[in-house]
Q: What sequence folds into this?
């Protein structure tokens, strides 16, 4: 079985689209996913399945909308893809430290995980919002964001929706924790 990570976009944020993690686990187990485990309240789910990504994404999105009554974008990565996200970070340690030093408002390194790569023209349009404060680099269907101020005030981050690709964003600490959880499963195989 393949170890997957499902990243749900926009749940339990600002009192909207509330889903209790115990309820989410139960729903995902009811559609045949194995060893379902959630991490924090923002919709990070590890599970195992033999199904293909597109089939799984549609199945999960449909079941969440049916049970909870609102649509949710689900982005999937396998444990191997998640490991690659961590391993190929395009920013140097020096660049990350510099951004962290400048940023007194929170995290500096984020990853926007997309369901599929954006069109080159759309990515070129997004690149216009890069600045001395905000930088991004795309690797396959992941966009690494390096911010020197809060993500809430980032013009670059706020324009990600213009890529016209479903996406969700996680900070680097969360990505590393999810990688550790996924790795613990694959190391046991």
A:
């Amino acid at each position: 079985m393949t170890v997957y990570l499902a990243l749900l976009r926009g749940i339990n944020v600002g009192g909207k689209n509330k889903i209790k993690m115990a309820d989410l686990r139960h729903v995902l187990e009811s559609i045949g996913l194995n060893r379902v485990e959630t991490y924090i309240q923002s919709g990070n789910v590890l599970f195992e399945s033999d199904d293909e990504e597109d089939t799984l994404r549609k199945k999960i999105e449909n079941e969440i909308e049916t049970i909870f009554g609102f649509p949710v974008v689900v982005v999937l990565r396998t444990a191997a893809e998640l490991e690659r996200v961590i391993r190929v970070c395009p920013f140097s340690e020096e660049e990350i430290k510099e951004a962290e030093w400048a940023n007194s408002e929170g995290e500096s390194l984020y990853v926007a995980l997309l369901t599929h790569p954006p069109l080159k023209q759309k990515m070129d349009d997004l690149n216009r919002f890069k600045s001395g404060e905000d930088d991004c680099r795309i690797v396959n269907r992941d966009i690494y964001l390096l911010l020197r101020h809060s993500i809430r005030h980032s013009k670059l981050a706020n324009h990600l929706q213009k890529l016209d690709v479903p996406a969700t964003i996680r900070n680097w600490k969360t990505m590393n924790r999810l990688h550790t959880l996924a790795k613990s499963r694959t190391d046991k195989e």
Remarks:
- Residues 182 and 188 are 10 Å apart (CA to CA).
- The mean pLDDT is 95.
- The helical segments are 21-30, 53-68, 79-87, 93-102, 120-127, 155-158, 172-187.
